[in-house]
Design goal:
Distance between the termini: 19 Å
Number of strands: 21
Shape: globular
Low-confidence stretches: 495-504
Oligomer: single chain
Radius of gyration: 24 Å
Mean pLDDT: 93
CATH superfamily of the largest domain: FAD/NAD(P)-binding domain
CATH class of the largest domain: Alpha Beta
Strand content: 15-25%
CATH topology of the largest domain: FAD/NAD(P)-binding domain
Number of helices: 14
Largest sheet: 5 strands, parallel
Helix content: 25-40%
Number of domains: 2
Structural class: alpha/beta
Length: about 500
């Protein structure tokens, strides 16, 4: 007989993934978990990205947990500091901080097959044993630094947007921003207000649509506080509106064509209104389908690129010089500071942690041709490991918080199964993982994500390892119930009641 026992759980990360996971475990009456956080505060990506203009591109009422929706957001779209405060609020309200070990960075984890345990290795030399390991480090945590020949010769400041150096004063300086993705779209308008000259190095332009952002009025805040149903109604309205607009990224249909038309009309109208110079408009017009890269939301981006003190540079960077950057067309750009707005190593997932499963095989080895996981959460050969915000769970349009909560509820099912059935381990079957992966990749090949552009959704060889193909509601249905037939379930044998096994 297997002996029911509540698993000891380790969670890595205190962003939306880790805190939401902790909440749902507590709701299930499971308190035997420890959260490891490398920093001294909660917040994840919203703690680390403090660059000017940092904000969310999903409305605040939707970019929040379903169990804590009625927060007094100041704006339609939350800014970095407010989102960080929201996460602190959640951690405090639900007593999640008491489970966190701050300044404890996990650098690796090894599965002990004999004892069915994960052994975590910590940066400070310590270790921790857990029956079940949940990684909630997310996809956007490892800054992507471009390789620029001779960058060590540059004498000015150079840093990534996710490692902002607040002691540097940009006022009156000349600066360069490399990259034109979502982070650059937010920080460039703020930098342009401070610098004398700003060079924006663009590899390829993005589709930009208006962002209907504004502060809530005092009267609106009063109504939302006194009548919380209005808050829920707005949340539901935004969910279904975004779910509808996400059809622009799905396989062709009548609704797909209409959604695409709405996006394209908004993008082109914004371009016409804010960029009067025809040559600059040509530079800023994408040559790939809408949605192939992350769609940009901003009311200031295009107008800033057309400002007198801003210059868009499309020639590739050849090398760095002591005073700045040189491009392949022979031009040189002298700058005081260089900012990398180049995003993250999104396809690396759990890096730089070294995760070792059965047969001493690492996740890096398994994922040499691109990360993949059953439902984005489970990898065969890595028992008792679950990944929150794993491969193919990102969205081209929609709230990642919704996706995270679907995963968190699913993982709680696995924990309860281990507890109630007295399981030593739960390992997804390779055939179940392969069937899911093959289906995702087949749908990806017909999607806009693999339409020929270079984006952070794809591996170096053009394979979609990041995005879910379908609607948010499709994913919710896919993970509603844990199918035990898709897993190898190994019972726990209580050796104290089996002395003959111990002797053997």
């Amino acid at each position: 007989m297997s002996i029911p026992r509540t698993p000891k759980i380790a969670i890595i990360g205190t962003g939306f993934g880790g805190l939401g996971m902790a909440y749902y475990l507590k709701q299930a009456g499971i308190e035997s978990f420890t959260i490891f956080e490398k920093a001294d505060d909660v917040g994840g990506v919203w703690r680390e990205n403090t660059y000017p203009g940092a904000a969310c591109d999903i409305p605040s009422h939707l970019y929040s947990f379903s169990f804590e929706p009625h927060y007094p957001w100041a704006r339609r779209y939350g800014r970095q500091s407010e989102i960080l405060d929201y996460l602190r609020h959640v951690a405090h309200k639900y007593d999640l901080r008491s489970h966190v070990r701050f300044k404890q960075e996990v650098i690796g984890a090894d599965f002990d097959a004999r004892r069915s345990l994960w052994i975590l290795s910590l940066r400070d030399g310590g270790s921790f044993e857990a029956d079940l390991l949940i990684s909630a480090v997310g996809q956007l945590h490892q800054p992507q630094i471009p390789v620029i020949a001779g960058i060590e010769r540059f004498v000015g400041r150079a840093f990534h947007s996710a490692r902002w150096q607040h002691d540097f004063d940009f006022h009156g300086k000349t600066a360069a921003v490399v990259g034109t993705g979502p982070s650059a779209v937010q920080l460039v308008p703020e930098l342009a207000k401070q610098v004398k000259k700003l060079y924006v190095f663009q590899r390829s332009p993005g589709w930009c649509i208006p962002k209907y952002d504004r502060p809530y009025t005092r009267f609106e805040r009063f109504l939302l506080t006194r009548i919380p149903q209005l808050h829920s109604l707005d949340r539901g309205k935004m969910f279904w509106l975004i779910e509808y607009l996400a059809s622009a990224l799905q396989p062709k249909s009548r609704i797909n064509s209409l959604a695409k038309a709405i996006f394209k009309y908004g993008s082109r109208l914004l371009m016409r209104l804010q960029v009067k110079d025809a040559a600059l408009r040509q530079k800023l017009t994408p040559d790939y389908p809408l949605g192939c890269k992350r769609t940009l939301l901003s009311n200031e981006w295009l107008a800033t690129l057309a400002a007198p003190n801003v210059e868009v540079v499309t020639a590739p960077i050849a090398s760095a010089t002591p005073s700045g950057l040189a491009t392949t067309d022979g031009k040189a750009y002298a700058v005081d500071a260089l900012v990398y707005g180049t995003g993250f190593e999104a396809t690396q997932f759990l890096a730089p942690m070294r995760i070792t499963g059965l047969d001493q095989r690492t996740l890096d080895e398994r994922w040499q041709k691109g990360a993949e996981a059953y439902l984005g959460m489970c990898v065969s050969g890595f028992p008792n490991l679950f990944i929150v915000y794993g491969p193919n769970t990102n969205l081209g349009a929609g709230s990642i918080i919704f996706m995270l909560e679907c995963q968190q509820k699913y993982i709680v099912q696995a924990v309860k199964l281990m507890r109630d059935k007295g399981l030593a381990s739960i390992d997804v079957l390779s055939q179940a993982e392969r069937a899911f992966t093959d289906d995702i990749q087949a749908r990806s090949r017909g999607s806009v994500y693999e339409a020929g552009c270079h984006s952070w959704y794809l591996t170096a060889d053009g394979r979609n390892s990041n995005n879910w193909i379908g609607y948010m509601t499709d994913y919710k249905r896919a993970v509603r119930t844990l199918e035990t037939a898709h897993f190898l379930l190994t019972p726990r044998v209580d050796i104290e009641t089996r002395p003959n096994l111990l002797a053997a």
